[in-house]
Structures are given as structure tokens and as C-alpha cells.
Amino acid sequence: MPRPAPLRRPALAALAATATLTLAACGTSGGAGTTTAEADAGNCPGEVLDVVVSVSQWGDVVEQLAGDCATVTTVLASSAVDPHDYEATSADIAAFTDAELVVVNGADYDHWAEDAIASLDTAPAVVDAAEVVGVETEEHAEEEHAEEEHADGEEGHAHGGVNPHLWYSPEYVQAVATAVTEQLTELSPDAADHFTEQAEAWEADLQAYLDELSALQSAAAGRSYAATESVFEYTAEAIGLTDATPEGYREAASNEAEPAPGDVAAFEAALSDGSVDVLVYNSQTEGSIPEQLRASAEAADVPVVEVTESVPDDESSFIAWQLSQLEQLSDALGGGQ
User: Fold this and answer.
1) pTM of the full predicted structure?
2) Mean pLDDT along residues 100-109
3) Position 280 pLDDT exceeds 70
């Protein structure tokens, strides 16, 4: 499966400015901002584990599930880093080497982590979110890392028909959490009760997020959205919003290709003629077209809901991050009625 397209974040603003009609899809490289949550061996009834998580979207979830019985290192903990193009450092390789469990997103979102694991003489236990939820088909696996050429001759990366933003699916999040707890328990069986308690506490905290999703299903009935990128797609599906993003634009956004002028015009027409109730805008994106579409939405009095691909650096937890976005959406849908 071809690699997903990178976001254009502020560090690439100058480059983005040189393209007047270029889509910015999914991050830029920079300091990884690696973080480590230390275990508390004194409160752990079993073996303390070393766990490495590839990206921040799963880091907080794993930390909560591991509790006192694992030291959890999240390699890409900064929202300024692009997981798609990141290259593992020697320190990252060392962390993977020492890990007893590694949690990756998969679906070629964090291929560098999968490559690092494959290079190890002795592989740790791995929870691959994409494999857990079954989004990667055999065909996609065979196409992994394939490159495609843009019409302008530049190399780029595409999602290849698979949306890798798995953490936006409530069903997938719960399935991956269950798989993580099972692996933790298998690796440190004496701490089984601790991991069960952590999972129950995490599920209790998650309930506010699930309740908000449930409440939004009523507000979303018969309503539509359009999106500058596909990051929010799984959540939109979960609450029943209809995707009114013009197909040509959606394909371009997924493949980091330049949208045809007609696709942009169709998007703006949908915003202005009432076909779209909400514009979902990735605020971690830099690019003239997303900004143009946001301006068109505001001019047409279409509410704009800001989402992000990765956890903002100022958010306290995965659940708080998701809730803040759902509350924005709830306000937008309520205001449009």
C-alpha cells in the first residue's frame, strides 16, 4: 500500500506558499518530542514491562492501560512531527530493542516503526492496530511502500484506499485497547488483576466520549459534512453524518494530488448552496486550498469544526482531545438547526 501523504505544517509554510493550487494533506518532520511515562514497581504486583508506542495517538491510551506495571515510551509525542516520513534514530532503535511490547498504528502510517521492528534480531510482542481491526487487506500489504508519481512528476505518497487514522473510530479504539490489555497480561501474568483494573478505569473514562457520540447521532441524522482531509472520516461515519465532499476533491486529498479546478469549484458550490451542513477542517494543515475552502464556508455561514490528526501538545489526554472536538461538532450541528 502506498504511504500516506504528509501534512503541511507551519514549518513548511514557505514551501506551501509557492504552490497556489496544492492540497496539503496529513505533518512535517522535526523534533520527535519523545516522552516516557515511568512505571511504579512498588505498586505493581507483577513484572514491570518496557513498552514502546510509535505515535501519540495511541500513547496516552497505552499509558492508561499499563498503569504502574509498564514504562511506556512514546516515540513521536509531538504534534509537529510527520509520522509518515519520520526516520527512526539510533535512540529509537535502542528503545525498540529493549521493548517487550511495541504498539504501532500500522496501515503504513508509521512504517518506520514497523521497519525498525523488522530489523531486530529478537522481535518484541507487537500490537498492530491495523491488523487488530482488519483494515489492511492482503492486496494492501503487497503494495506497501510502493511509490507513485504525481502528474507534475514529483513523488508523493497516497493512502491507497485505506484510511489509516484508526484512532478516530470508537470501535477500533476499543478493539485496540482490548488487544493491548491482553498482551500486557500475557507478558506479565502476575499483574493480570492490575491490568484488568486499569482497563475498567479506562473504559469508565471513555464512556463520556461514547455518550457524546451517541448524543450526536440524533443531531447528525439527515445532516452532511465536507472535509478538507479524511482524518475525521471514521468518527463521522460512527455518528451518521453523510459525506458531501466532492469525490474528485476527496480523491485528490487522499493521494496528495493537485485537485482539478472543477473539484475545488464543486466544493465551494456545495458550501454555498446548502449541500453541506458542516465543514471539517484539519487545523494542523498548511495550504492555500484548505484555507480557501474555510473562507468559503465562513462566507456561506457554514459552521467550521477544527480537528487535528495528532494529539495537540496542550491536550491532557486522548479522551479530552476527542471530547473537545465532538463538543465543537455538537455546537455546529445544533447551531445549524
Assistant:
1) 0.85
2) 95
3) yes
Contact 283, 306 (CB under 8 A): yes
User: 309 has which bridge partners?
Assistant: none
Q: Greater confidence, 304 or 156?
A: 304
CA–CA distance, 128 with 125 (Å, rounded to integer): 10
Give first-to-last CA distance, the chain, whole Å: 41
Residues in the chain: 337
Nearest to 136 by CA among 156, 160, 101, 112: 160
- Strand ranges for the chain from DSSP E: 35-37, 49-55, 70-76, 101-104, 125-128, 148-149, 155-156, 224-227, 242-243, 278-282, 304-307
List, in order, residues 6 or more apart from 41 with CB less than 8 Å away. Answer: 48, 68
The four Cα atoms 200, 212, 322, 275 give a dihedral, to 10 degrees, of: 150
53-77: average pLDDT: 97
Q: Which domains does the chain have, with CATH numbers?
A: 27-208 (3.40.50.1980), 220-335 (3.40.50.1980)
pLDDT of 141 over the 70 cut: no
Task: Answer yes or no: are the C-beta atoms of 164 and 108 closer than 8 Å.
Answer: yes
At 93, the amino acid letter reads I
> Which one has a higher pLDDT value, 28 or 119?
119
